[in-house]
Amino acid sequence: MRDARRRTLELVADLDDGELVVPRLVNLSPFLWELGRVAWFQERWLLRRHGEPAPRADADAIFGDAATHGSRWDAPLPTRKETLGWLEQSLERALARLARVEVDDDERYYHQLVLAHEDACAESLTRQRQTLGLPAPRPTLLVTGAPVGGPCPGDAAFGGGPMLLGAEPERRFVHDDEKWSHAVDVRPLRIARAPVTQAEFASFVAESGYERGEFWSDVGWRWRQREHADTPLYWERDGAGNWLCKRFDRMVELAPDLPMMHVNAHEAEAYCRFAARALPTEAEWEFAAGWLMRVKKPFPWGWKPFEPELANLDGLRIGPVDVGAFPLGDSVHGCRQMLGNVWEWTASALRPYPGFERGHELQRASPHFGRARVLRGGSFATRAREARTTARGFADPERRDLFAGFRTVEP
Q1: What average pLDDT does range 119-136 have in this prediction?
Q2: pTM score above 0.90
Q3: pLDDT digits over 370-397, tens only?
Q4: CA 386 – CA 351 distance, rounded (Å)
Q5: Per-residue pLDDT tens digits for 239-285
Q6: What is the distance, to the nearest Å, from the Cα of residue 78 to the centroid of all Cα atoms in its chain?
Q7: Cα-atom radius of gyration of the chain, to the nearest Å?
Q8: Which domains does the chain have, with CATH numbers?
Q9: Are 306 and 382 in contact (CB under 8 A)?
């Protein structure tokens, strides 16, 4: 928990009070609300659950699950100083209680729930800095040198067959939407070894892909017209006609072998039609990431815990790296970067697994069933302890602000 709190505070420490002010947009939240929600969530599940008092009488109304998104700008949020004090107090009280009680499985679950919530907040804060054009945050550790990169062309092929989709009960903590593993059949498949690159997506743009309706689904075309989307988000031409892309507060030249990022599901599907490809289902993705001979691996590279040479995770590098980097993290099927670098859109709508029961994550998955699209794999900003082959991200298919790209399959 101290590690998670350190990262939370790092992500706002260099911002002045003016930079903490956030416009009222659907995919943003005030920075002070995000921080207050972290303190509230920790206090709610680790302290008040045991009868300890809440330090703020209005905390539930402001930060609780019943509060609407729009109310976050109108609520009487605590000041920066008060919020930081609340964060410190909630953490120290939680750790003090942890030191004096016996930790059973029930208590361990709640601590892991709180940790996962704060880790998700860290990625959200990083994403907000990109959206608002703020300076890039500091990396979590000083990593010297760039990983060997370049392209990673071609497909990986596998024969398909039955598999268990979802997390297995022996996992100590998983999110409600990962529960539980169940049998599905996966077709024989050829899947790209790496995500689509910026150079590959630029070819779609160069062929007027945004203007050609034959590449777009009906709902995707309506989105494109409504939003006047003629180019990828954050792309613009320089004076010489070359593409530049916004990375936090800077405009940088497109690097051909970086994964395409900040595209939504509609843009990903349009590219797939252009390239005579398709998005994988989440079952196909999970098979390629970690299923072999009736055994599911928690990580593409096996059972070994994360190390920095295996994947671009944990905020070690503040941004994506070439799709050819991290060969030691390849899955058994030969797919690269199945965890980290960029989230990957799938063709699957978010739906509950058989026997789903909503636990304490009231605002996580269940309000989005049937509407959101599943993403897999995590990004460079995802904490490594949250990355696993069964983890399900999800978002509205129109969202472009995510650190999300995609890989393709043969239809």
Answers
A1: 98
A2: yes
A3: 999 999 999 999 999 999 999 999 999 9
A4: 20
A5: 999 999 999 999 999 999 999 999 999 999 999 999 999 999 999 99
A6: 28
A7: 21
A8: 2-131 (1.20.120), 144-411 (3.90.1580.10)
A9: no
